[in-house]
Amino acid sequence: NAGVTQTPKFQVLKTGQSMTLQCAQDMNHEYMSWYRQDPGMGLRLIHYSVGAGITDQGEVPNGYNVSRSTTEDFPLRLLSAAPSQTSVYFCATRNFKNIQYFGAGTRLSVL
Amino acid sequence: GENVEQHPSTLSVQEGDSAVIKCTYSDSASNYFPWYKQELGKGPQLIIDIRSNVGEKKDQRIAVTLNKTAKHFSLHITETQPEDSAVYFCAASKSGSNSGYALNFGKGTSLLVTP
């Protein structure tokens, strides 16, 4: 039982490049979400999904796309990376008691 | 939307002392208040939570109190140990089965416990 698995752990991009951050869960939770964490800012919600085929925007969605084709996977796409997207990204799931479980994070630098 | 304020941003205590972190929230409809601990290089982990129908909850050295009228909640750690050193986040949410209600996080408190 791995919980929430994020890949890659580290990534360096050049401005304008695209990439996908992967998130997979084996807890069969319907709700999944992506947060970004910046120094002194806490965690801010980017996008979330309440089930396969359903996604919605969070607090800071600009520059990010998501899709949810299966219960297990919730990838986050950066179409054209910008230095402002340098951050640590966390994927999380939530159970029916509203308890959230976080992955270990992806540390992204955009040069 | 919900706004969660957390204080202090840094806290240094001696081993064995108590540590208290306080949070306030703005949305009176929020009814779920978790606390997360984040160690260096890791994701946040839930350490304790409280729901709005309860005023206090304890789990060994950790306790959380909730004052719904004042819209604030606090984390209390007693008999602190060096391994308690981490960043602690409070959060607030409206719970609901399969709802879109997200966790709104405070900005975190960096706790340092010195031997």
Cα separation of the termini of chain A: 36 Å
Q: Which quaternary structure do these chains form?
A: heterodimer
Tertiary shape of chain A: globular
Taken as a percent bin, the fraction of beta residues of chain B is: over 45%
Secondary-structure element string of chain A: EEEEEEEEEEE
Q: Number of helical segments of chain B?
A: 0
Distance between the termini of chain B: 41 Å
Rg of chain A is 13 Å
Annotation, overall tally of beta strands of chain A: 11
Backbone shape of chain B = globular
Summarize the main sheet of chain B: 6 strands, mixed
Total E-strand runs of chain B: 11
Unreliable residue stretches of chain A: none
Structure, described:
The complex is a heterodimer of chains A (111) and B (115). Chain A has 111 residues and is mainly beta. Chain A has strands at residues 4-7, 10-13, 19-25, 31-38, 42-51, 54-57, 64-66, 76-78, 87-94, 100-102, 106-110. Chain B is mostly beta strands. Helix content of chain B is 0%, strand content 53%. The relative contact order of chain B is 0.34. The model of chain B has no long low-confidence stretch (mean pLDDT 92). Chain A binds chain B through residues 4, 30-31, 33, 40-45, 48, 50-51, 56, 58-59, 90, 92, 96-105, and chain B through 1, 6, 9, 32, 34, 36, 41-46, 49, 89, 93, 95-103, 105-108.
SSE arrangement:
The complex is a heterodimer of chains A (111) and B (115).
Chain A: E1 4-7, E2 10-13, E3 19-25, E4 31-38, E5 42-51, E6 54-57, E7 64-66, E8 76-78, E9 87-94, E10 100-102, E11 106-110
Parallel strand pairs in A: 2-11
Antiparallel strand pairs in A: 1-3, 3-8, 4-5, 4-9, 5-6, 7-8, 9-10, 9-11
Chain B: E1 4-7, E2 10-14, E3 19-25, E4 32-38, E5 45-51, E6 56-59, E7 62-67, E8 72-77, E9 86-92, E10 104-105, E11 109-114
